[in-house]
Amino acid sequence: MASKDFDPATRIQDLWVFGEYGDVNPSISDASTYTFLDPNTLKERFSQEIEGCFLYSRHWSPMNRYLSDALARMEDTQDCAVTASGMGAISGTLLQLCGSGDEIVASRTIYGGTYAFMKNFLPRFGVATRFVDCNDLDAVRAALKPDTRVIYCESISNPLLSVPDLPGLAELARERGVTLVVDNTFAPLILSPARLGAQVVAHSLTKFINGTSDCVAGAVCASHEFINGLSDVNAGALMLLGPALDSLRAASIRKNLLTLHVRMRQHSANALFLAERLAEHGLKVSYPGLVQHPDHARLTRLMNPGLGYGGMLTLDAGTEADANRLLKRLQEEKVGLLAVSLGFSRTLFSPSGNST
Prior knowledge:
Elements: H1 8-13, H2 39-47, H3 62-75, E1 79-83, H4 86-97, E2 103-107, H5 112-121, E3 128-132, H6 137-143, E4 148-154, H7 166-176, E5 179-183, E6 200-204, E7 218-222, H8 224-231, H9 237-241, H10 247-257, H11 260-280, E8 284-286, H12 296-302, E9 314-316, H13 320-332, E10 337-338, E11 348-349, H14 352-355
Parallel strand pairs: 2-3, 2-4, 4-5, 5-6, 10-11
Antiparallel strand pairs: 1-7, 6-7, 8-9
């Protein structure tokens, strides 16, 4: 059960960082590399992080550090690393955790890019994935093998909006000595997976957290040890694969993060309004804020209070042809935009079967 006295929005607001001249926003470092006055300091920085000292912007930059610190506070983890995309965060995490001969147990209902990475790309490196219903703890338990290294799921799944038993999955992960990785893109602030037992929390910052559909970015929130491993100059997946987030974009996302709580409340209110009206008309709608949703009670028990049930809903139009006619009409009537992704200031809608 979530702690009702944990307020992730306040934790973000309480993190004050000022620019070098007392600016209300921290200064943006417009540099790819950083100077040293002493070669010995350069040597030390190459082998370990030194607070306030930067080496090269593929590794860390000041603004990426500021954004990472804010996201770590939001997720209540020790540390965070930001990346140039959500897939950069997810793929880097899984490559850091798994090698040849290892296995992943993953939810069947996950973002299409993540599914493709697990199913089509990771086997090139000898990493196999077993896809199961992560709402069925017995099915997850049965899928865990001696070579399993990771249990992977989404806090609210894409696109079916199921909510797994995160504490139950965390207990399974502890029993078997594997890492529970949770993609929290659909539920920032609403759910705090690390407080429910997850060791790693991933985000596509592109979506709700940034909220303006003008960039792609990602994040990995975890322990100091894990983030240091990802950033290690000799063996870190993020350091060596190089999905570095640009400092200017990091600054923009950090500013938008400060209004996330306001936006999530409104996204949730809008989605609940639409879901209730659609359900009243007898349409097949899935939204975890509806009492008839199979995971409504679970999400209510696990969620942080006051932010609603999220901004995503799914509608079953019956056939692909009917769905396409509906989507076209919705855009013509200026209800929203036919486009992939989520979290924009206008409603976005897409046929998930053909777009993820």
